[in-house]
Design a protein that fits this description.
It is a single chain. The longest helix is centred in the first third of the chain and has 21 residues, at 69-89. The strands form three sheets. Strands 1, 2, 6, 7, 8, 9, 19 and 20 form an eight-stranded mixed β-sheet that branches. The relative contact order is 0.18. β13 and β14 form a beta hairpin. 32% of the residues lie in helices and 25% in strands. α1 crosses α12, α2 packs across α12 and α7 (222-229) crosses α8 (301-307). By secondary structure, the protein is of the alpha+beta class.
């Protein structure tokens, strides 16, 4: 028998930015009275939402050149919702500053010119700037560069660098300010989820057994582990892509992206000041495939194996993806960046595209900086799923959030909150108009 105080309307598993934003949405915008969040570490946002483990960027789609116009529109709308929250509730979790995407050489400049003509309707404040203006904003980008080398950039003057750990803490704080049961269990590792006649039983190592009417598994790549245990997500596998950074002292004033490879969901390095230490510039991320679901946590190798697709169809899917010439050469090159001594020389060549005067001695490897992006593989289509993936089951949902998961977290929270109140049924409701008033929405009709 599960104790009465261990029974919740909704349990969220995973305390990163996705789980905490959902907790906030359910606590403040629904009449659900009993909520709980389980996190296996001693604080929220200790994995990919930790400030050391991501690029600290709030993506809008304006300077991300591997985004289509359609995707940029979706990401922009979601990011604007997060901006409203940041400026109202979490002013200590972000820094505003200029950001640009840099084109070098005739080919890239022509591509960026074409992109600007198509995207300026969606981003009317986006500016096209040349060498003189780039030099005014980022003198290290122009210094030492061949005068004959053609350069231009697209500039957004109001970029956001976000500490997603601080933001996750803010979501939890706001969720717990109401007179309802909102329990947050840290150091609580969920080992199993068992369906029952009504709801689910949740087994934990340290706190015993709990009951939930609805479960939201917001545990990044681990979400697929739980999904597969319950018979969901059989057509999905994971290709974990690890990112690393190199650091230098006080080089850039804002974010400077390079042109990205359209075929890849991850590509091309950028440089920007660390959100918590503006005197340190980070360059990266690199990208290499590792059999881990958490960076530097080798106990997650077994979890990777559980999420892999050990069937002929699954293996053929992975072979097709990994042996794609563009992806294979890109990942192979990125493996070199992590090699001792040689890796920094190889990376320096890429970083000098942003800062031509950068020297070998300026860079040092960012130890402990960088996370894992759980890139989803669809074994039916034998392709990588671009963006976040969600699996919806019987009174349970699983969210796997590769980039730009943090940027769209509040939008996902709205979507998942609507799903959850539908799963619970009457008398539970989502306060659509209050949400619209606070954050706006395209999913629901916002009345004046």
């Amino acid at each position: 028998m599960v104790p009465k105080d261990h029974h919740y309307n909704v349990v969220i598993i995973g305390g990163g930015i996705t789980g905490t934003s959902l907790l906030f949405a359910l606590a403040r915008y629904t009449n659900i009275s009993h909520l709980a969040l389980f996190e296996k570490y001693g604080d929220v946002a200790e994995v990919n939402s930790h400030y050391n483990n991501n690029s600290q960027t709030l993506h809008f789609g304006d300077i991300e050149t591997n985004y289509t116009l359609e995707k940029a529109g979706r990401v922009k709308e979601a990011a604007q919702m997060l901006v409203r929250y940041l400026e109202k509730y979490a002013s200590d979790a972000f820094v505003k500053g200029p950001k640009m995407v840099l084109a070098v050489g005739d080919k890239e400049v022509n591509e960026l010119e074409d992109r600007f003509s198509k995207f300026q309707v969606l981003f009317p404040k986006l500016k096209k700037i040349g060498r003189e203006e780039i030099n005014r904003l980022e003198p290290r980008v122009v210094a030492g560069r061949d005068q004959k080398e053609k350069i231009m950039a697209l500039l957004s003057e109001n970029g956001y660098a976000v500490d997603y750990k601080k933001l996750s803490r803010s979501f939890v704080l706001k969720a717990r300010q109401l007179e309802k049961t909102v329990d947050v269990f840290l150091n609580t590792d969920v080992t199993n989820i068992q369906p029952e006649d009504e709801g689910y039983k949740i087994i934990t190592i340290s706190r015993g057994v709990f009951k939930a009417d609805v479960i939201a598994v917001m545990a990044g790549p681990h979400s697929l582990v739980f999904a597969k245990k319950l018979g969901y997500g059989k057509n999905f596998g994971l290709l974990p892509v690890a990112g690393s950074f190199y650091c230098a002292d006080d080089i850039l004033r804002g974010k400077v992206y390079t042109m990205q490879i359209k075929k890849l969901p991850f590509a091309a390095i950028h440089g920007d000041p660390d959100v918590n230490n503006p005197k340190e510039t980070r360059f990266g991320p690199t990208a290499k495939v590792l059999p881990l679901l958490e960076r530097h946590n080798y106990s997650t190798v077994m979890d990777f194996i559980k999420t892999s697709v050990w069937s002929l169809k699954g293996i053929l899917s992975l072979i097709k993806i990994i042996t794609d010439r563009t992806l294979f050469l890109y990942v192979l090159k990125n493996f070199g960046y992590d090699l001792p001594f040689v890796g920094k020389w190889l990376f320096l060549k890429e970083a000098k595209k942003i800062v031509p005067t950068l020297r070998y001695t300026d860079l040092h490897f960012g130890k402990g900086i960088g996370g894992i992006r759980p890139q989803v593989v669809n074994i039916d289509t034998k392709k990588l799923e671009m963006g976040e993936a969600e699996i919806v089951g019987d009174k349970i949902l699983f969210n796997i959030t590769p980039s730009p998961g943090a940027s769209v977290s509040l939008k996902n929270a709205e979507q998942d909150a609507l799903r959850i109140v539908s799963m619970l049924g009457r008398p539970f409701q989502f306060d659509e108009q209050k949400w619209c008033q606070d954050f706006g929405s395209t999913m629901i009709e916002c009345k004046e």
